[in-house]
Design brief:
613 residues, 27 helices, 72% helix, single chain, mainly alpha
Length: 613
Amino acid sequence: PYQFEAALFCMIAVSEEIAKPLRRYQHDGSSLINVDADAQQTSSFLERIVSALAKNAFSSTSHPLVMARMCIFLNKYATVFPLCSSENTFETASELALSSFNRSLEGGNYDAFLDSCDVKSPLSESCNALQQLLRSCPAHFSAPTAMNALENAWKMPYACRKVDIEDRESLCSGLCYVISSLPSEQWSVSVENLAKPLVACLSVLAKEADTEKNCDIIPSVMKRISHEILLLSSIVRYFDQADVSNLDDGKRALRGKVLVTLLNRNWSCLKHIGETYSSQEVVAEAIGRLLSDSLWLYKSVEELSFLRELSNLAKTSMLGIAKTNKPTSLPSLLLFVKTMVELHGQNAETSLQTNDENSFCREIVVDLIMVSYEAVRLCPRLDVTNGSSDASTQGSNTSTDLVSSMFATLSSCAKHCPRLLVVLAKDDQPLGELLRLSVEAAPDALKAREVEVALSAVAFLEMLITSASCLTFDDFEDTKKSAALSALHRTMSIIHTNVLASSLVSVCEAASQEVVGPTINLIKSILKHSQWDQIEGSIGSALNSNQFKLGDAAREIMFDNLKQCSMNGYPPANFDGIIAEIWQMHQTDDTGAIAGGEAVAEFVKRYFRQQAT
């Protein structure tokens, strides 16, 4: 079997080159009789290989490594099998992949052995092969016999529980392509049938969780619930986005309506799970993904109630998580808020001063942003400078994921609805309070050890500065306009002082190299959109702090470099290089003697020589 496996390995390695002649042609349902000799030769070659694999009848390919390698081969050539002269080639390849799937369910666990060969299990590889085959020619599987075989494969995990969630999602992707290729009048029933086993399983699991008293069993039930929700999310995502031919705008809209109907029909169960078990991280992650994928289904104001249901479940789940002090469950729901802002933030922005149909969307977006911020605020105090949390039960990544997600959401607001962000506040707070508090939290994030936290804060601040530079509130009535401008001015003052100083300090301190470039860009943005008298004090304070260890001459160079950028409105040619060198010199192990080091002396000498010339 190992010689057979080696031959398949070679075929996989050269798949791109072998498939080139066939990929030059678009399959139109007929054979490739009149194409060039290279394509005919490739077609004949693949036909013989697939035929030989089928005739083998698993006598040699039953070995787990060979079976896995065969499925990888089928995966690699899935898109060109339909281009072969013989239509039987694609059908035979599909039968091989499906047979491998069924045989793998009956076999043992070979993961340890296959890991040493850098190969996934035959079950995983067969699912990947089926996914590619189903997507490459979905119409081929519309026949009743093929559909029955696929239905059996889809339902099999509920009987044996041996198929990983990632493999089930791969299979789901291919099945959604097949359903999309069916006549549109069959979509509703087909999607319902696809979702039926997982919806039934969800209902049973929810009841089991509600009545289960054994704490040791609950985690496994939560994991299974999360998997079924992830599969439902996959149906929503893959069916809505399946790229099949002959779909006009009307049919694309119909696909969305089919999915909305599916979700509405099962919403009470999903709502119960979300409201009751979102404090479980695996469930919150699954609910967050389902909500994010479902957002794309909202197309018009007629579906506003659907959008409101999605938002309400997210809000209830976030507040419930905050009350249970389990912030690790929040990031996936914050991703939903971010996606909501990306899709509907602009509509919310344009309706600030109107009461048109977009104003309903604005109310949903505003409520969602405010609740998400409140949920983060209610979580245990987070120390982003060392990645710890006051809640001793939380993992080390608690602050990283949560703070990064919140800044990512704020960055999306700054891009898509900056005026809305400027005026956001609770009823009992002054205008812009949410933005002010967010910007005040940024300096600590800039100095965080975790790269993700620092980068998310930098991205938010850069986007805010860029958007704020061209904001106007002329359509506001005078009192509100004055309050909005004052809120924006307060925020920019924090950026000119605390944020700029922290950015300079983070360059001097042991910030990760990945953060240095983006931080330099942030410094340039602040300088570009500031007057020198607004920032001179904070620059002096940062450079005169203990964190700057390179001495007076290097300090003077840095100060002059920053001043030129601010005064001229654009950075000097060597601006980035100077700050990068400042960072590099602060990384030396020669602590306490940096200012007198050779690197600093050479840096100062080179800079003044450049100035003289």
